[in-house]
Amino acid sequence: MTESGKPILYSYFRSSCSWRVRIALALKGIDYETVPINLIKDGGQQFSKDFQALNPMKQVPALKIDGITIHQSLAIIEYLEETRPTPRLLPQDPKKRASVRMISDLIAGGIQPLQNLSVLKQVEEELQLTWAQNAIISGFNALEQILQSTAGTYCVGDEVTMADLCLVPQVANAERFKVDCTPYPTISSINKRLLVLEAFQVTHPCRQPDTPTELRA
Amino acid sequence: MTESGKPILYSYFRSSCSWRVRIALALKGIDYETVPINLIKDGGQQFSKDFQALNPMKQVPALKIDGITIHQSLAIIEYLEETRPTPRLLPQDPKKRASVRMISDLIAGGIQPLQNLSVLKQVEEELQLTWAQNAIISGFNALEQILQSTAGTYCVGDEVTMADLCLVPQVANAERFKVDCTPYPTISSINKRLLVLEAFQVTHPCRQPDTPTELRA
């Protein structure tokens, strides 16, 4: 927390996991300060001694709040949900909550880890794009099918949930890696409906304190 | 559910994600039937049309329970926790719950996905062992440090939590991939204390209905 008591989010404008948490903070109206951690500059600021003390996984996001530091985006969102329940990001019905967590984990555990920067660095440079695309395509094939039985206006029913906070940043990654999203009409239309919401707009990678001028919009 | 109303777990004896769920079911005393899905035989039974209809991600575990099918191990465990709360696998204090979920996500999202079978298949054969070891070592380096501030008898305090259900199967994977665990005394001693508990013993990969005879113990 800052001296003013505000939570501090360690974030990188382009990190899809950071974006998930930014949306949760925005939806719940939690005022916070951003400390940018540039994953490229200085060989990666996440490797600094100071940051490693905060998050030994050397990843963003990390959130300092209520006297503790939490990392892992879904763990952060679940904590926010339990301590700041309004508006809720998990439905009341346990079966719908299971759907939300299943979709969130599919993206956060089944797609994103395989296409993130630190993994791609271990793959030969000319294979990196295909590697990332394969991870996204294989996950989206499954996700498109799952959404057909869970979705309403958004991923699960008609309320914005944690699953939507995972979906939009993952679709942005898909676009960055030039994945053709035509085979995913459900994913694409939910993404479109979410992107017009204020909480998704103000937290967008092109509008962060650390967004480079040439990428701002 | 079976005709008898028992939940059905689609599981593979060696799958660390299936093991997490088996422990949860055992701890909560939930009687269930196992349908083995052999990830190797027949080119991988998870790719069959029938199984893909159950889990489009083509992964175990999946649990049929209460008229729904849930996949993603942590989503399953959270559902069991919400619908069968005793004994609890998440502490009452939200800050401790955050620690449990942080450790669980670190393993389930930050280590296991990078060393699982489907990913290793994409890596050149002579590099597979090193690839898996690197993922585990990098995660364990972080985890060892985190546990130093969260652990009591187990990963978070003195009660068995979801984090422990992730830890033990991941240590088993580390051993399978010949990772030297000497640098991780906290991980190793918690693992040792957990392995003697009945719920961890009866769910062990060497004691499943689909465990091959030569691996049984």
Automatic annotation (TrEMBL), chains A, B:
Coiled coil: none annotated. It is found in: Cytoplasm. Its EC number is 2.5.1.18, 5.2.1.2. Residues 93-213 form the GST C-terminal domain. SUPFAM superfamilies: GST C-terminal domain-like, Thioredoxin-like. Pathway: Amino-acid degradation; L-phenylalanine degradation; acetoacetate and fumarate from L-phenylalanine: step 5/6. InterPro entries: Glutathione-S-Trfase_C-like, Glutathione-S-Trfase_C_sf, Glutathione_S-Trfase, Glutathione_S-Trfase_N, GST_C, GST_Zeta, GST_Zeta_C, GST_Zeta_N. Its cofactor is glutathione. Its main location: cytoplasm. It catalyses: RX + glutathione = an S-substituted glutathione + a halide anion + H(+); 4-maleylacetoacetate = 4-fumarylacetoacetate. Residues 5-88 form the GST N-terminal domain. Pfam families: GST_C_3 (PF14497), GST_N_2 (PF13409). One of its GO terms (biological process) is L-tyrosine catabolic process. This is Maleylacetoacetate isomerase. It comes from Mandrillus leucophaeus (Drill). The gene is GSTZ1.
